[in-house]
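dude i think i finally got it to work??
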Amino acid sequence: MQSFVLDGKGIVKAEKAPILSKEYVDPDYYMIFDPSIADPKMFREGSIAVFNSPAKVVSPKLKAKKVKSYFVDATGISMTHIKLNKPAMPVIGTIPKVFGKITMKSIKNSLESEGLEKSFFTMLDDGYKSVK
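look at this
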């Protein structure tokens, strides 16, 4: 993964090439924090998507576009550990398993300087273990 953009609406765009704008122009990977705002038209054919959802997001339109979709109950994980709806850490924890270009070790190393509580690192691990 070369770069990524978080749009403030709950969608992350990640691409192999540098991202030069915040517009969604055929990204390779998607991290969808709120599946209710995900329009199947926005997905590029053959892309990969991770949904914050307790169950698999089933869409014939995604299947027709050959979008490889995964899901993780990131909200449930965050509620379990910190009693807040903060799904970012569990979703970030899916990156090494789903995208395969970034290791969990490198994610943790980059976050250690942020002074996060141990529960945030546990949420990373749970996101990794729970993604399906």
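Residues 3-130 form a domain with the Pyruvate-ferredoxin Oxidoreductase; domain 3 fold (CATH 3.40.920.10).
im so relieved honestly
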